[in-house]
Design brief:
Elements (H helix, E strand, L loop, with lengths): L3 H6 L2 H12 L4 H7 L11 H8 L8 H11 L22 H23 L2 H21 L8 H20 L3 H20 L5 H16 L3 H15 L4 H17 L4 H16 L14 H14 L3 H6 L1 H11 L2 H17 L3 H18 L2 H16 L6 H12 L2
Helix pairs in contact: 3-4, 6-7, 6-8, 7-8, 8-9, 8-10, 9-10, 10-11, 10-12, 11-12, 12-13, 12-14, 13-14, 14-16, 14-17, 16-17, 17-18, 18-19, 18-20, 19-20
Length: 398
């Protein structure tokens, strides 16, 4: 960018003022009448305008330069100025921030799609780039950027996506901290009139992740708070909040009655609405809700109910084009078959899950596959030939 001092030394400022004054069909006398002074006043002599245009007078005051840009439609960059006006920050609507946020929104949506459909490293790369961008915005742009609802909405979405990636990368403590940050951002957004949607989402993610660290009561409390808040949001989010609350009732409370009530409500709600409007990453489509019912039945000790859903879930996954769930669902079948003592069928599904986990390149999924294969031994099935073959295959693959 051209420096103001350099332009002054070569009389560029005066030449630019004359050029744009003439473009506006304005006489020197008319410009003198409207001249923005450094003290906030208006007006100067015609002789002063002439001296400025001839390079005999130097202008350095930002108030005057910005006023001339506004008056004569001079681009700010021509005087080495940014869109941000430190003298009047409350009036500044920075065009560059608006454009940056529009681009960031596109890349966040793209990163969400990549996470659902591509190997994890590709999603990590996109999310890392986005975090660099938002760190730059928070560091180098004016404080009022945090008072823009659009910025806070996108920042919370990025925190959510970052936390999900951290979980998939088996960085569980980092994920909890990130979701806590998302909730703080969501509260800022809500205080600016942004509504409770993002706060509800943050509570769902935070509550779900707390259950992994054994904080079962906190998990249920957060998810019940999300459920209550969801009634002030969309049906999509309401179904989503009830889905994860149902999961908590199964995994943390071992409560079959409340699990079935919550998951039934979520599933019936999901059947009454449409997906595919950009909320699929945020709010599970029907196949995702059905998968949580499948998983909950396993935790509560009903593997036969899980297997009874197999054909229905498989068809719904295909209809929803839910690639991530397609990769994960064999683990449910493997667990269900083993609970029923059907070891060969269990090993077959475990092998499918491990293959897909490696294709995803997701450490969390690979870890789960290895743990499941190893657990055959602790369950008393380690001497069965098909189990030994599976365990040897997994040990041989780095």
């Amino acid at each position: 960018m051209v420096k103001v001092k350099e332009m002054l030394e070569t009389n560029q400022v005066g030449k630019i003022i004359k050029q744009y004054r003439e473009k506006c069909h304005m006489s020197q006398a008319e410009l003198a009448d409207s001249w923005p002074r450094a003290d906030g006043g208006i007006g100067c002599s015609v002789q002063y305008v002439q001296l400025v245009e001839y390079g005999k007078r130097i202008i350095t005051e930002q108030r005057t330069l910005r006023g001339l840009c506004s008056l004569l439609n001079i681009p700010l960059w021509m005087f080495g100025l940014s869109e941000y006006d430190p003298l009047r920050p409350e009036l500044t609507q920075t065009k560059d921030i608006t454009v940056i946020l529009q681009v960031a929104e596109h890349w966040i949506q793209r990163a969400e799609h990549v996470y659902l459909t591509a190997p994890l490293p590709e999603a990590i790369r996109d999310v890392n780039y986005l975090n660099v961008l938002f760190t730059h915005l928070l560091t180098h742009y004016p404080p009022f950027i945090r008072e823009q609802q659009h910025f806070l909405t996108l920042y919370a979405q990025l925190q959510k996506l970052t936390g999900v990636i951290q979980k998939e990368n088996a960085c569980y403590e980092q994920a909890v901290a990130t979701f806590e940050g998302m909730y703080a951002t969501a509260l800022e957004l809500q205080n600016l009139g942004g509504g409770p949607t993002m706060s509800c989402e943050a509570l769902v993610y935070l509550g779900s992740e707390l259950g992994r660290s054994g904080k079962k009561q906190e998990q249920v409390a957060y998810l019940e708070q999300a459920r209550d808040l969801s009634f002030e949001t969309s049906k999509h989010l309401r179904a989503y909040a009830h889905t994860y609350l149902a999961r908590a009732y199964a995994f943390s409370a071992n409560d079959t009655l409340r699990f079935e009530r919550a998951i039934h409500f979520a599933e019936q709600l999901a059947r009454s609405i449409s997906y595919g409007d950009g909320t699929d990453f945020i709010y599970h489509p029907l196949s995702g809700i059905m998968a949580e019912r499948s998983c909950g039945y396993l935790k509560l000790g009903f593997p036969e109910k899980t297997l009874a859903m197999r054909d229905e879930i498989t068809a719904q996954i295909e209809q929803d084009k839910n690639q991530r769930l397609h990769n994960w669902i064999p683990l449910d079948w493997a667990r269900a078959y083993r609970m029923l003592g059907e070891i060969e069928a269990s090993v077959e599904q475990a092998r499918i899950f491990y293959t897909r986990a490696r294709q995803m390149q997701a450490p969390h999924a690979i870890r789960r596959a290895r743990e499941f294969a190893a657990s055959f031994t602790t369950k008393g099935f380690g001497d069965i030939p098909v189990v030994r073959e599976l365990q040897e295959e997994i040990r041989e693959i780095p």
